[in-house]
Write a structure and sequence with these properties.
Blueprint lengths: L5 E2 L6 E2 L2 E3 L2 E3 L6 E6 L4 E7 L3 H18 L4 H17 L1 H12 L3 H21 L8 E5 L2 E9 L2 E5 L5 H14 L3 E5 L6 H13 L5 E4 L3 H9 L6 E5 L2 H14 L3 E4 L5 E4 L6 H10 L14 E5 L3 H13 L19 H16 L4 E4 L18 E4 L6 H4 L6 E7 L2 H9 L6 E5 L3 H10 L4 E4 L18 E2 L5 H8 E9 L3
Parallel strand pairs: 1-6, 2-6, 9-10, 9-12, 10-11, 12-13, 14-15, 14-19, 15-18, 17-18, 19-20
Antiparallel strand pairs: 3-4, 5-6, 7-8, 8-22, 13-21, 16-17
Length: 495
């Protein structure tokens, strides 16, 4: 524990066990993990420090439940997902406040919308339960050949801390709809809201269909992704850890879904020098989530004709976003998740300040004293005169640091946008539909938005190119590709 952390004691400390096979349990070792409120640098909860023993038990329980769960009629599985959505709605405010407290994400701008989106994700996949169907193949009159979709088995899922409740729903809902069972490891920094989701799931599902573990990556996550009885790996997180997950899948020839990092370009054409575009850039940069998002449009490619004026308006609007207590209704931006990430982001800002030729447009290093110094708070920051080969323009910072890169030629800006080992999201801003569609066609990203910087919606095909991942989420096709396998059956009708 760091000396700067405060810890609640006794009855003040919230304690929550994990879910295995329908039972709420603590780690066999008796060890726990502390959960910190990043806005106060205060330990306010503890959860079990699960390990290989708990992973073995959870996978066995999930495998046992799979035998009967896969035989539940798909539409009945869908109805159960709908009830889970209703259960989320019934506890909406409680869940949202928990998300805000453990992640530092602002209640009004982030935690409540995240909770609502998670409920909609369960409703969306609940409604798709009747679409788990195959196709007939017309070989000849004497052959009946058809395919059918079958579940994979036990899905091992690992989620990050930046939007934990929604990302848990994104994995649980389609996996269960398709007839799989789930063992999920929560993010150690933000496990509580996801454990509340496990409570709701346990109210409506047979024991063992959803199992929720808490623990560290090496002690709990690694045994889970390497478990021999797991049939599928689904991971959202950093590219570095994603490579380890892919390596674990390769050893056993397992299907794997990876939603990894990003360094997303936001390309503004000169005809889009308008206030609504400034608002869109703020949204795409995810400033109200402290830019702790893999889709953050952190490389801003501004046409040279509008460069200086656009940045002035961006700085003016971003400076009006209120930074502070995540639970306050007037807060727009909350706190960075933990001290490690906070120091990492500060390091990038310090490098930007020392970068030759750079100009700080807004933000900078955090306050050393005053109310904001009590938590991991950072203002939206932007550097001008940036170049695409800067470290700040190439590495995923996962914090509110934007670099603004000037451009003049359309072909050159697309080349710069693609000069990255990431390829998750991209944003294009112009009234010229030809330029917009041409750029969307040529940019190397799996999820492209034109003239908006909003988040994912149920039904989007969401996923990355290059080292931003494999597979897709959020959609019907993603569910079928990620959580089912296709079997072909051919019958000779003349015998």
């Amino acid at each position: 524990m760091n000396m700067g952390e405060k810890t609640l004691t006794g009855a003040q400390l919230l304690r929550h066990p994990m879910l295995i096979g329908g039972d709420w349990v603590w780690a066999a070792s008796g060890e726990t993990l502390a959960v910190e409120n990043p806005a106060r640098r205060e330990i306010f909860a503890e959860v079990p420090r699960g390990g290989a023993v708990e992973v073995d038990l959870a996978v066995d329980k999930a495998l046992e439940a799979f035998i009967s769960w896969r035989k539940v009629p798909p539409r009945e599985r869908g109805r159960l997902l709908m009830r889970i959505a209703d259960g989320i709605d019934a506890r909406h405010e409680e869940i949202a406040r928990t998300v805000a407290t453990e992640t530092g994400n602002a209640l009004r701008t982030q935690a409540r919308p995240e909770t609502k989106a998670a409920a909609e994700m369960f409703r969306y996949f609940g409604g798709l339960s009747g679409e788990l169907k195959g196709e007939t193949l017309p070989f000849s009159d004497d052959l009946l050949s058809y395919t059918q979709r079958e579940p994979l088995g036990v899905v091992a899922a690992v989620i990050p801390w930046n939007a934990p409740f929604l990302l848990a729903a994104v994995k649980i809902a389609p996996a269960l709809c398709a007839g799989n069972t789930m063992v999920m490891k929560t993010a150690e920094d933000a496990p509580l809201a996801v454990l509340m989701l496990a409570e709701i799931c346990a109210e409506h599902l047979p024991p063992g269909v959803v199992n929720m573990l808490t623990g560290t990556g090496p002690e709990c996550g690694a045994p889970l992704i390497n478990h021999p009885k797991v049939a599928k790996l689904s991971f959202t997180g950093s590219t570095a850890v994603g490579k380890l997950v892919m390596e674990a899948a390769a050893k056993r020839i397992l299907p794997v879904s990876l939603e990894l990092g990003g360094k997303s370009p936001s390309i503004v054409f000169p005809d889009a020098d308008e206030d609504w575009v400034v608002d869109g850039i703020i949204s795409a940069m995810r400033f109200t989530r402290q830019s702790q998002s893999c889709t953050a449009g952190s490389r801003l490619f501004l046409h040279r004709k509008i460069y200086d004026g656009f940045l002035e308006r961006l700085a003016d609007k971003a400076s009006k976003l209120r930074l502070g207590d995540p639970l306050a209704e007037d807060t727009d931006i909350g706190a960075i998740i933990n001290e490690k990430q906070f120091k990492k982001v500060c390091g990038y800002v310090e490098e930007g300040l020392q970068q030759k030729g750079s100009r700080l447009v807004m933000g900078g290093l955090p306050d050393k004293d005053g109310p904001l110094s009590a938590g991991y708070f950072m203002r939206p920051t932007a550097f001008a005169q940036a170049e695409n080969d800067w470290r700040l323009a190439r590495e995923e910072i996962f914090g509110p640091v934007l670099v603004a890169i000037p451009w003049e030629d359309e072909a050159d800006v697309v080349k710069m946008a693609n000069d990255s080992h990431y390829g998750l999201a991209a944003y294009i801003w112009t009234h010229d539909i030809g330029k917009a569609l041409r750029t969307a066609r040529d940019v190397e990203a799996g999820w492209v938005q034109i003239n908006q910087g909003a988040g994912q919606l149920p039904g989007h095909s969401y996923g990355g190119y290059k080292q931003s991942g494999l597979g897709r989420e959020f959609s019907l096709s993603a569910m079928l590709d990620s959580f089912t396998q296709s079997k072909n059956i051919t019958v000779n009708l003349t015998r």
